[in-house]
Amino acid sequence: MNEKSEKYVKTGEAFVSKAPEILISLGVGSCVIVCLYEENKKIGGMIHAMLPSILGRENPDKSEYLFVDKGLQKLINEIEDIGCKKEDLTAKIIGGAEMFKKLSINSINLGNLNVNSAKMLLEKESIKIISEDTGGNSGRSVKFYLENGQIEIIKRI
Amino acid sequence: MNTAQTISDIQQIQEFVNKPISEVIKSLQSLLKKDTKIKEINVKIMDPIEYVNEFENPEDTYVVSVLRLTNQTSGTLFLIFTSEDASKIAKLVTNFYETTLTEELSNLEVSAIKEIANIIFGALLTSLSLQINTDLTYSIPDYTKDMIRAILDQFCAEIINRKDNALAITTIFEVPSENIKGKIILLFDENSFMKAETIHE
Questions:
Q1: Are B190 and B163 a contacting pair, CB within 8 Å?
Q2: Dihedral of alpha carbons B35, B112, B75, B131, sign
Q3: For chain B, which terminus, N or C, has the lower number of CB atoms within 10 Å?
Q4: Which residue among B59, B142, B145 sits closest to A27, beta carbon to beta carbon?
Q5: What is the CATH number of domain A6-154?
Q6: Cβ contact A114:A75 at 8 Å
Q7: What is the predicted ipTM?
Q8: Would you tell me the crossing angle of helices B83-94 and B107-132 to the nearest 10 degrees?
């Protein structure tokens, strides 16, 4: 019997798994979570990225999953490597909040940049975004149920 | 290399912040008219990712006031309470007791917390400024109540964008008679703070 297990995906991490596993990210602020899902095989992946782009920040000591552009591309490749076709994947995007609007440096909205970076990469890879819960000014926790591809979002305020 | 990674460097930073933190506690004691103590001062130099990922309960909700330092000494100051302790300390300051049936803070309590943050940040910045013999520029404090990791995300991301390591100075204080605990976190770019310290020397 397959037991439901939970895998916590922390900042700068990504994970690929299959049903009945549940992928979870807790306390997401300006970071972005992208959940990729292949419905027929019930295989999915989650990335918890913090910055929009790795450009100019290449550092072998840092996880590539910290960066939306590099990390999400790597996650797509990993899902393809285990037998899923890119055209069968769908994406959901969560996060990218602006927790303190008054404290932004030069009015840069980091959360928004993260979300846009994810959208650009998904568009480039022709992966359809089927839903998103992004922006705003509150934190989120995310549960991704690989049994059916559903997402549960928890907000504390 | 101007980085602080040895035990003696950490001790030096700890000694450096002792006075400003003591000033904060004095101000708080005078405001609350209750004995207030430093329980712990902890200095860590670490990867900001480790810092955000090390919270055992990242979903826990806290009442947080934030102030950002700008220019030469870039960093962020946080004043953190649980909702329960925020409510208790607000009642002490306002001497106004009302019973709410939700965990939400009343407008009066929020105002009191903002006032406490102004006093704490003011005392801390004045003392730090004197110690490094330079004017510090900073933002207006902001306030929120949310999951702790979500709150720290943006600030850790900004440090990663600029530097490899963060310097996190965490002070836990308590008002024993009221069983109130609070936390002050100073989160700097590692090198930014060392620059300030060099000015002091």
A1: yes
A2: negative
A3: N
A4: B59
A5: 3.30.1330.200
A6: no
A7: 0.90
A8: 90
Residues in chain A: 157
Q: Is the pLDDT of residue B199 over 50?
A: no
Measure CA B158 to chain center.
17
In a mutational test of the B interface, the residue from A98, A100, A141 whose CB has the highest number of chain B CBs within 10 Å is A100
Residue-wise pLDDT for B130-189, tens only, equals 888 888 889 999 999 999 999 999 999 988 887 778 889 999 999 999 999 999 999 988
Name every chain B residue with its beta carbon within 8 A of the beta carbon of A139. 146-147, 149-151
A41-96 pLDDT per residue, tens:
999 999 999 999 998 877 777 899 999 999 999 999 999 999 999 999 999 999 99
Yes or no, beta carbons of A50 and B61 under 8 Å apart:
no
* Residues A109, B45: Cα–Cα separation, whole Å: 27
Nearest CA in chain A to B149: A27
Q: Is A31 labeled as catalytic in the residue annotation? A: yes
Residue extents of the structural domains in chain A? 6-154
Q: Could you tell me the residue ranges of all domains in chain B?
A: 7-200
The reply to whether CATH 3.40.1550.10 applies to domain B7-200 is: yes
Tell me the residue type at A32.
V
Query: Tokens representing B31?
Result: 């405001």
